[in-house]
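Morning run. Coffee first, then this:
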Amino acid sequence: MSTYSLTPTSYLVLGCLASAGPSTPYELKQAVAESVGYFWSFPHSQLYSEPARMTAAGLVQEEREEGGRRRRVFSITAVGRAALDDWLTQPTAGLPDIRDVGLLKLFFGDLVGPDEVNALAVAQRGAHEERLKLYEGLFSGPPQSAAESTIGLGIAWERAAAAFWASIAENPPKPT
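And here it is:
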């Protein structure tokens, strides 16, 4: 494992296998789409290639079905669990990268008219309100698990983003 560099996707695979148990890449993709996919964006094709690379490093093991579609089923090894535990127990102080196309367009909003900025703000507000409804529908009441706590931040983020875009729509910035 010393020559194998673990990426956030590696830890995502290890975490999913530790939580859900043995899984095919397709099952990993489904689990991610219904959970961490709300806040962790990456090409899902990596869920098909990463487990195979991790097998070579001894972090996961692969079993192939004997018949039928001969699906590959991966499970976490003791070495993989130790790597995951080590990663999880180290606090992270880094801030997230924000790559928001709406904010990028707003940044250059002085290059278009106020109607276009208003249309952007209205569309962004609507998108954030829709995501807010989705998050609020996932559970009600205080979070019951660490995983549900992540949705709590999602709810706060979407509320703040919807309010931000509403304020832009109501009071568009003046071109400089």
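The first strand starts at residue 60 and ends at 64. Good start to the day.
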